[in-house]
Design goal:
InterPro entries: VWFA-rel_acidobac-type. This is VWFA-related protein. It comes from Silvibacterium bohemicum. By secondary structure, this protein is an alpha/beta fold. The protein folds into 2 domains: 245 residues, Rossmann fold (3-Layer(aba) Sandwich); 63 residues, no CATH class. Helix content is 26%, strand content 24%. It has 8 helices and 15 strands. Strands 5, 6, 7, 8, 9, 10 and 11 form a 7-stranded mixed beta sheet that branches. Helix 4 runs parallel beside helix 5. The two termini are 33 Å apart.
Amino acid sequence: MVLLFLPLSLPVMAQQPVAPPEATAAPAFSPDPHISLNVVVSDRSDKPVAGLQQQDFTVLDNKLPQKLVSFRAVEKSTAEAPTEVILLIDAVNARFTTVSYERNEIAKFLGQNSGKLAQPVSIIFFTDQNTRVQTAPTRDGKALLASFDQNVTGLRTITRSEGFYGAVDRLQLSLRTIGTLTEYEARKPGRKVVIWISPGWPILSGPRIELTNREERQIFNSVVGLSTALRQARITLYSIDPLGTTDAGGLRTIYYEEFLKGVPSPNKVQAGNLALQVLAVQSGGLALHSSNDITGSITRCSQDADIYYELSIDPAKAEHPDEYHGLEVKIDKPGLVVRTRTGYYAQP
């Protein structure tokens, strides 16, 4: 069948370790036994809201209210509550001219406020030859910019990049990279805001594509694996489409919305459930598009690291492996918008 090339279990994805230049092997942190949620609350003007209390929140697991195991309001990234912003430049799914424009916009972001960054920032370059972290996280925008200017982003060299099989190649490489990233970040404490600057990888779903039972199981395993890995690594994923107004009104900017609902079983899965934008929204992040202001979009995403709330609940007792549970957080105050992870997979 056409999708036999899809990679789709997390162990397969995690093949190319991503590490800072010093490449020290950090100790792995034990996964949180609770379901931990990073919750962003904003007002109607999209400004983050501080000062909320535990009693203002209600967490619903499959529409049933849950007791909060822990609660903490975070109003600034500190040594005790670190939040790292990771900018990922995608040269696999974007053309060289687009990546060049991205670089200029990122340079503007790093130079804001005289180079004094609000959060520790690191930059990852994703090409089809390798994936590398430029520097360790730093708040020194000037130092980061100097190192950034010395880095040459590789050209896309996938042989069949313009055809269907090239699309499969890009999908495979993208999924391996995000799997590797979650594996590495899970070794580090604290929350991570990963801003993936890319039009997204090919979704490869449509009326002409039929999946075998084996392919459905493979894709479902990857959906479960990535959802769990992102949650345990405390990653909130953001997608910024660098094509801006060129992409405005196109199918790419809205098609992913067909796959946002959580997948309960293999026979309900599609390849589109692994789209970048889908993973971003389901992790509690944003999928931004139709704007040429990449600098502003990065700033918009990174401000979610300034003010947010950490909540946790006990996981539900599952009746079978990989049982999907939808999550919803409600605020007992009118006019506020809440954004967090939309679900998780429980185990017996």
